[in-house]
Specification:
Length: 84
């Protein structure tokens, strides 16, 4: 991946936080993961969408790691079984 460049002074930005969960406190549904970069020169902070392995479940819309199955769907399936 190419370096992120400060839009103010064009220095290479340094990664401060990766895959930081943005918006979780404000928007319960729309959790976005961002990589937070800071410029070592002017301390400008820039946000980029994280290159993460998070996926959105097509059934229930829950965002979860691609390595795991959807916990909400697993729970719903278990409840459906229990209600038969
Ligand atoms: Zn800068
Ligand atoms: Zn799901």
């Amino acid at each position: 991946m190419a370096d992120k460049i400060c839009s103010a002074c064009h220095k290479a930005l340094k990664l401060r936080e990766s895959s930081y969960p943005m918006g979780s406190a404000f928007l319960k549904a729309d959790r976005v993961h961002v990589d937070i970069y800071e410029c070592p020169e002017c301390h400008r902070v820039e946000l980029f969408a994280a290159d993460s392995d998070m996926i959105t479940c097509p059934k229930c819309g829950t965002v979860h790691s691609a390595k795991e199955s959807c916990a909400v769907c697993a729970l719903n399936a278990a409840l459906d079984e229990a209600n038969k």
